[in-house]
């Protein structure tokens, strides 16, 4: 069954099942000049231009390419828009606790990882990508997920490995997992044509730099900001580019507030949601090259 979206006051509304959407048309909520979109359309169009929806009209000209991104700057315009998240305080906390326990137990790691990522992506709204989700399966890269969990378990229990080799191995596994995550992102149940093209050597280098930067007490925040931008520049396969807008200073002061508040225990659920929502909102879809010009 088709799911419909419509634009109201510059924001995307939906999805609505076909029957409910036609009720909105009958009620006058969706008018002939309202911009609408459903899977299979190349872009946002006025409802009156779609044959059989609200009236007559010639079949629209369908341009090449996928549907335009929708954001604060309009429909199909230069601005794609920032991502948003609607995590609930206890929902995110509860799943985070189960995720950590599953990783420490090692064997459940592939299952709890997929379960956790499905929850996270289902609560993130991406401009122009309705019903954002994750299609990865536990057995896709079970070896990487379990090896990563084993190293995490070893660190948590104090089991000694060669420190540098363990860090490099963990960084490589994180690179494998990131490639898997990007390749399995979906919209409306269909995999997006995305891939992560950053090299393993580059990723390990950033990982090591982040570890070393902790010596400076505050420098790690700026390393993370630039690392996130490097990751975003290496996501390919779409007309738009993913950008990270957070600065080192923003990451630092929010991390300090988060840590201090969590030391009181009671605020943990709300602080985790606050930090998670902010971090997601720092990712945005922009025209290719716009992120490079901004920095």
From TrEMBL:
InterPro entries to which the protein is assigned, alphabetical: GYF_2
Alphabetical keyword list: Membrane, Transmembrane, Transmembrane helix
Keyword Transmembrane tagged: yes
Source superkingdom: Bacteria
Residue intervals passing through the bilayer: 97-120, 140-156, 163-183, 203-230, 251-272
Annotated ranges, domain GYF: 4-53
Coiled coil location: none
Alphabetized Pfam families for the sequence: GYF_2 (PF14237)
Protein name: DUF4339 domain-containing protein
């Amino acid at each position: 069954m088709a799911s419909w979206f419509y634009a109201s006051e510059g924001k995307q509304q939906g999805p609505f099942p076909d029957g409910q959407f036609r009720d909105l048309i009958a009620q006058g909520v969706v008018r002939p000049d309202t911009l609408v979109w459903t899977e299979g359309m190349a872009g946002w169009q006025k409802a009156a231009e779609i044959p059989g929806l609200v009236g007559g009209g010639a079949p629209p000209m369908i341009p090449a390419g996928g549907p335009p991104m929708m954001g604060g700057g309009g429909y199909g315009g230069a601005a794609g828009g920032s991502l948003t998240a609607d995590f609930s305080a206890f929902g995110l906390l509860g799943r985070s606790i189960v995720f950590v326990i599953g990783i420490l137990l090692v064997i459940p790691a592939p299952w709890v990882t997929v379960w956790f990522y499905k929850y996270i992506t289902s609560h993130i709204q991406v401009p122009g990508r309705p019903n954002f989700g994750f299609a990865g399966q536990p057995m896709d890269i079970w070896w990487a997920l379990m090896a990563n969990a084993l190293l995490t378990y070893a660190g948590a229990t104090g089991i000694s490995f060669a420190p540098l080799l363990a860090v490099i191995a963990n960084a490589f596994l994180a690179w494998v997992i990131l490639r898997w995550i990007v390749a399995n992102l979906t919209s409306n149940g269909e995999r997006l044509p995305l891939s992560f093209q950053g090299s393993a050597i580059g990723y390990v280098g950033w990982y090591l730099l982040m570890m070393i930067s902790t010596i400076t007490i505050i420098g790690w925040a700026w390393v993370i900001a630039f690392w996130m931008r490097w990751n975003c520049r290496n996501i390919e396969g779409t007309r738009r580019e993913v950008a990270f807008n957070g600065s080192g200073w923003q990451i630092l002061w929010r991390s300090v507030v988060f840590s201090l508040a969590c030391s009181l225990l009671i605020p943990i659920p709300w602080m985790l949601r606050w930090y998670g929502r902010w971090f997601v909102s720092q990712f945005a879809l922009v025209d290719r090259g716009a992120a490079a010009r901004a920095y």
